[in-house]
Amino acid sequence: MPTHRSAWALSLALAPLAQAETLQVEPLVITGSRYPASGFDLPFSVDRIEREQASLGQPGVNLSEALNAVPGLVVQNRQNQAQDLQVSSRGFGARSAFGIRGIKLIADGIPASNPDGQGQAATFDLDTLDHIEVLRGPFASIYGSNAGGVIQVFSRDGQGAPKVSSETSQGAWGTSRTRLTAEGGNDQGGFLVNQSHYESDGYRKHSAATLDKSFAKLTLYPDGESKLALTFSQLNQNGTQDPLGLTWAGYQADPRGVADAALNYDTRKTIDHRQAGLNYERAFAAGTWQATLYGGTRRVIQYQAIPSSAQASPRSAGGVIDFERSFHGASTRWLQDFDPGLGNLTLTTGVDYDQSSDDRQGYENFVGTQLGVHGNLRRDERDEVSSIAPYLQLGWRLGDFNLQGGLRYNEVAFDVDDHYIRPGNGDDSGSVTYRDLTPTLGASYALTPELNLYASWGKGFETPTLNELSYSGPGDSFGFDLGAATSRQYEVGLKSLVGEATRLNLALFRIDTEDELVVDAASGGRTRYQNAARTRRQGLELSVDSALGETLHTRLAYTRLSATYDQGFTSGGRDIPAGRHLPGVPATSLWGELEWRPREGISTALEGLYRSKLYVEDSNSARPAPGYALLNWRARFEQKLERLTFSQTLRLDNLLDRRYIGSVIVGDGNQRYYEPGPGRAWYVAAGVEYAFD
Q1: Is 403 a member of any domain?
Q2: Half-sphere CA count of 305, side-chain side, radius 13 A
Q3: What is the mean pLDDT of the chain?
Q4: Residue 368: CB partners within 8 Å, gap ≥ 6?
Q5: Is residue 391 situated within a structural domain?
Q6: For residue 369, what is the domain's CATH number?
Q7: In a 3-state reduction of DSSP, which class is residue 406?
Q8: Which end of the chain has the lower number of beta carbons within 10 A, N or C?
Q9: Domain count, the chain
Q10: 70-89 per-position pLDDT tens digit
Q11: From the CB of residue 23, how many other CB atoms can be counted at a distance below 10 Å?
């Protein structure tokens, strides 16, 4: 095992080797163990997606472009930039009505998830990507209140001679995107700057969007023992339209259609998100110290389609969400190698602190008979969420055995200060704190140098989000009595290097959850949650990565998942018996890619995706979204002329022009469950890069 003094340098040195024609060298990962290690040797499911795999031949807009190759993950582009992607891991997160929950999102060591577990993938900048790491299973709990997994994005450090690059693209439905990037560095430091602009009319009516992203990174190496990285990022969306979901009849009539309510109330969202962070690493004789500081602001204004009649109640919070959030946090950890005379021991100990504060108002979305405008104040409060979590991890390498263990104490506190007190709408101020201890344990055994067997176990912990608490109490007040869900996860698997050109991973898992959060009732545009169900998720994940000779390369990701309620409960006045399937979770997912590179500078590939049907609500009685299969094609060309590099990309998605539902809105109170995916879509891009001396 490398010492921590040289770990990050070794990681940079080995990364290019992962792209060689043979796949014998396993890329290093830090997610799960927190120190650079071969994913092949670790006793849990962790995948690394390189920049080339994630971005070349892709539009570079959504994280879904990069993560289909990871088994266990279901990443669905909702064709709705107002609501972000829909991401689930082993069934966790499928219920989220907006954003991402149940999965920890991290970018350059900085959380992209709030302390309550709600995250936004739209803040990730794929143009600056170095690689992505994805952790599933028991060891996800070492990162906090996110039982489903961890998605960690790493930007690249500026290296080599300075260079500037630009790319412009056009696509179906009025889609266009431009980016400008500058980067470079030496042994003293490096820089990376990126600016992009995206706009689209959208596949569906009333789904136009404009996104502007900025990113800057400065890396410094003060001496041979330390590294300092400063980052800044910004996301701006102005008036992104929200087409809402469709009923089944609406989908059958016009997949590109929009609900009348979306047009009547002009549903839309504006986002201004800014954040800055600092990462510092220092190697000492005894070990390595790492520290992270970050802070930022987020402003959101969202016009919803809640009918004006539903806002007559004095308890209504209106139909316009308007909040300003400030957030900050810090983490510190110590990593140390020991030689106890019997194998190698690695210790990691640290603490994470995260805090967010919302100045939140709600307004009516009408004035008189005019709809979709800023009306009277109906909600005014201060919401604070904080989490603190010390943790300890141990790794012990003893011959052919690799043992990993961890323990994390989680404390997540919610505090609400209600300023809107009127007749019929009392003071909803209050607080609640969730605490839990989450242990993890895993072991792997090298049966041969090319075959590792492993097993792992862990306890998970998932608090309600602020949004889920908001209307879950008596009379739609804050649900301070809502509890956290707890889970026990089990996983066994194997990791194999087949010959010199194929890597194969297989995992079997089972997850038993108690106090699962489910819908209690949904009406008037509000959803009330309850702890009512015991669930079981069990399944199989298989991934294959193989170089077929010198010019062909194939990847495959397969997931089979049974996610059911193990105990009955009541929702919306209906009995939900045990055995019903969790909505939003496909039983089968299959993705594959065959890439051909006849010579340097030319590549083309076919991609295939299959998803089985999706149930849309807990009783499974409403019509499920049918399963579908898609075929995509891409080609990329590069030409070098002295200091210039030219590139062109062609892409066709849904080659066979299949009609399908790409995602669902679980439990929608208006039965607008279905979000159609686009038909055949084209995309072209051209870029140029200039390298200085």
Answers
A1: no
A2: 19
A3: 91
A4: none
A5: no
A6: 2.40.170.20
A7: strand
A8: C
A9: 1
A10: 999 999 888 899 888 889 99
A11: 21
pLDDT at position 472: 61
Q: Is 620 exposed, middle or buried (0-12, 13-18, 19+ CB in 10 A)?
A: middle
Q: What's the confidence (pLDDT) of residue 24?
A: 46
pLDDT of residue 147: 67
DSSP conformation class of 343: S
Q: Name residue 561's beta-bridge partners.
A: 539
Long-range residue pairs from 174-179, CB within 8 A, at least 24 positions apart, any chain: 174/199, 174/200, 174/201, 174/202, 174/208, 175/59, 175/199, 175/200, 175/201, 175/683, 176/200, 177/59, 177/60, 177/61, 177/685, 179/60, 179/127
Q: Phi/psi of residue 488, each to 5°?
A: -120, 125
Angle among Cα 483, 663, 55 to the nearest 5 degrees reads: 105
pTM score, two decimals? 0.94
Query: How far apart are the C-alpha atoms of 311 and 320, rounded to whole Å?
Result: 11
> Which residues share a beta bridge with 583?
none
Does a structural domain hold residue 243? yes
Residues 537, 472: Cα–Cα separation, whole Å: 25
Q: Is residue 559 part of a domain?
A: yes
Q: Which domain holds residue 273?
A: 4-378+410-691
Distances (CA, A) of 468 to 143, 144, 502, 674: 21, 18, 44, 22
Q: Cβ(47)–Cβ(66) under 8 Å? A: no
Tell me how far CA of residue 677 lies from CA of 113, 243, 653, 657, 662, in angstroms.
Answer: 26, 13, 11, 10, 5
Q: Give the integer Cα–Cα distance in Å for 360 and 337.
A: 47
Do residues 140 and 149 touch, judged by C-beta distance below 8 A? yes
The amino acid sitting at 287 is: G
